[in-house]
Design brief:
Ribosomal Protein S5, domain 2; 10 strands; five-stranded mixed beta sheet; 21% strand; binds cytidine-5'-diphosphate; alpha+beta; 339 residues
Amino acid sequence: MSDKPEKFIDENGLRLDGRRVDEIRPMKMEIGVLSRADGSCYLEWGKNKVLAAVYGPRELHPRRMQKADSVLIRYRYNMAAFSVEDRIRPGPSRRSTEISKVSREAFEPVVLTHLYPGAVIDVFAEVLQADAGTRTAAINAASVALADAGIPMKGLVSACAVGKVDGQLVLDLNKPEDNYGDADIPMAMTSDGEITLVQMDGDVTQEEFKQAIEMCKEGCRQIMEIQKETLRNKFTKLDDVEVPDEDEDVDVSALVESTLESSEDDVEDEEEAEVESEDDTDQEEEVEGGDEDSVDEDESESEDAEDLDSVELVEDLEESFTDVDEEDATDDEDEDEKA
Ligand code: CDP
């Protein structure tokens, strides 16, 4: 690790990497980079390199983990062993478990979770190269991957950190600022400025904290533009794809069903890969306390879903979940007994 620099900001107000105090590192994103994921995004932010993959919504196994009235979001933040200077021991750690938990919570307020009761959405964020701000980088990539997977959300989530060096607040910390600075405050927020994640390491005054939020809002606004541009580019490309004639009927429910069937193949493998987080235990308890069968029996549509334009799609999706439930009823009973 390099030594602590004498000064972080020079006489011209520029930081060690030449940025102004309110400037974010260059960021670029690519969408749909993984063919097996329902949604994916590769992000480079400064020297950080992160890959996010989203799978689902798909039926959750084992069924005792299902939430009767909403989808379960699982988020796994992981640093590759080779992503940092010293090799990272593979497998979950206290740090990755904590980051996974707070990142999942950063998405819960925006995902329309009530649309997919009994289902799960898996988000994997793999840090391939780390250089400060990886949790925020992962959230930015995961947000685009969720949109790429077509997960209904109120909006995108963007994340950025504000820190303090040489007694001054700086946006989007680089490595020396992160290592030796006086504070590190990662935040995530929606386009409306609703904060969905805030953590703080170090000390700032109340006034500085307010300023940090404002700085972060501006950083997130810029990041959201990049996220939106990335998504727009995909849809512009989609314009070139051959679409059926207007009078040609498209069987949406068959499409949805085939998607679910293909995702089902992965389900058994995924059962093994449980995301370790404190909250998972709570969610498990919640389900055990609730009426598991209500997922099968509740054929009435959610009232909120009626407000959406995609009501038909939601109905098809819920029906197909019911079909899957019936087919797998025997297997699931066996599993539940074992559990
Ligand atoms: O990455 P983020 O800022 O979200 O989290 P952090 O815990 O503040 O870590 C800051 C940086 O320290 C990371 O981005 C990595 O570059 C580095 N780090 C490391 O070298 N080894 C670790 N085990 C953890 C972090």
